[in-house]
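Lab meeting notes turned into a lecture example. A postdoc, R.K., suggested we walk through two folding results consecutively so the class can see how the record format repeats. The first protein's sequence and structure tokens come next.
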Amino acid sequence: MISQPAFSGVWCPSVTPFTSQGEPDIDALGRHFARLNASGINTLLLMGSIGEFASLTQQERLLLIREARQLSPLSMVANISSTCVSDMLALAEAAWQNDFDAVMVLPPYYYGQTPRQLLSYFRALDKQIGGRWFAYNFPARTGCDLTPTLVSELAAELPNFIGIKDTVDCLSHNRALIEETKKVRDDFAVLSGYDEYLVPNLLAGGAGVISGLNNIVPELFAAAMQAWREQDLAALTRIQQRIGKMMAIYAIGEDFVTTIKTAVARRFDSMTSQSRNYGGALSAEQCEALDRLFD
């Protein structure tokens, strides 16, 4: 058995279902969570990028935090990222009141941030958040990178900083984060934000993956973790090859959020494919390509 930090394994960054009127659909979220609960995955991430947090109002985000926790017994983490710190702290307080296990935060976005600014920001935020938190590294969206050196410095001094989602399409970045944080903490979780990096992440000593495909095929990723625990190389090879083929989903359509929602809607009829991104509706040909991926 290979020891892993808390929150290891496979996470689903859940989509946020909307009604035909464009409001958050709690009933559909419950149906979605019911399937995820039974799939064997480890953790649910509420309102991540695939969950369209940036298009949700503060009141909608508070509603989702209040309603989501009672829909699943799995570990649950709320993304509270915002450009307004007071809004973030209100979301964190709601998360603690509703028994969330941790929260997740992006660095400040829109304005470019230097390493010194990032250190100052996360140190100040740590004093106010009131519980355990993950950082979310997504340089393509924030314009700044949480480097291995910076993350390990924070991990060494802030016990409530317990892990990071590294959404960087570069295995060496993920590996370096793992190596540097292991020098200062045995319990720090480095999770890849790219679906196909699960096995490389584990091989490098990481904690797992936060994978959009888990909205559609969570059982596949749960099987990967089981094969990893059993050191079943043949099974891991087969699963890695399947995941690699399924990564084509991110090249179908204009908008990956709508594409993933469309796949969920077509396979499980549990929600609409509606998102708040414009122009992402799939054509009939794109829907056929989507269906072929998961046959």
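The second example is placed directly after the first for contrast:
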Amino acid sequence: MDWSEGRTKTPKILVVDDEGKNVKLLSALCENLGYETLAARTGLEAIDQVKRHMPDVVLMDVMMPDMNGFEATEKLKQNTLTRHIPIIIVTALDSRKDRLTGISKGANDFLTKPIDAEELALRLRNNLQIKQYHDFLKNYSITLEGQVAERTRELSSAFEKLDTAHQKISAGYIETVYRLAVTSEYKDEETGAHIRRVGYYTRILAERMGMDQEYQNYIFYAAPMHDIGKVGIPDSILLKPGKLDPGEWEIMKTHTSIGAKILHSSESPYLKMAEKIARCHHERWDGKGYPAGLKGEEIPPAARLMNIADQYDALRSKRPYKPALDHEVAFDIITKGDGRTMPEHFDPQVLDAFKNSSEKFREIFETHKDDVLATKWEI
């Protein structure tokens, strides 16, 4: 690739020498080659000229007053703004030591006096190509940085749009959960406040057990779906004021499987969790629950949280077949057992989380005990 392609400005050569005749000679040779020239008589003046005019190549004499060519070269190469400018040391000295000194100070090339015009032309051309290559990379880097910045802005805008779309989709999923949960309120007027409270209970348990914010959010909206399967249970059984007979109880237990079928195959993370909760929230840690008799960690974690939340709220709530119990009684039944409900029914870690957050459970029940059918759920 020709790195000089598209170059419009004439290269500038700075000639540095304390002898006026040498400056005139080098300047004339450079101008004959088509270059512009600048001149400096001392090392200090050379540094000043470089900073003010930013030449493309410096022809640097060595033996000069106040600051020799080696020192001036070192100063220019230490400066991040000028270090990329090629410096050709021009000297009558031809010793190995002087060349090593020049290299150590950062010199790019050497030219020995007396000057050979053809050699000068070749060395200037080679060093100008190096400079042009650097300029190309610098400009390319600036262009690339601009393109990256523009692409970053575009990606940022795209992510903002995706985030907005995700929020709309999430809101849609949550609204779906709400609408499905409302069906159980129509089916059983006693459960309207219940389905909202279990969301708060399970979120408290998830937080206490160290679940991340996303998990807490999912279970808050998924838990109210636990009894959606009751829409498939006949009212004569669902609302029966007395104890269910064995046949009726078997039908009642099918609400877990019915609910799971209603929620099955959804891509929504809320409804996926809700399906597990609906199917397994009556499974027990000791394996004596239903519908599948799952035991221990075979039970999905969300269902284990729901199990104890559902049990607490059922104990606190009035039902056609039982009166409401106060917090202390419900707490003792869950933590100590009463024959029907026993501590071994629950995941021990979830039970500990319940014990440590039981006052939160009391607050939630008291705050939401008078909820009625809502027209809008918390989203």
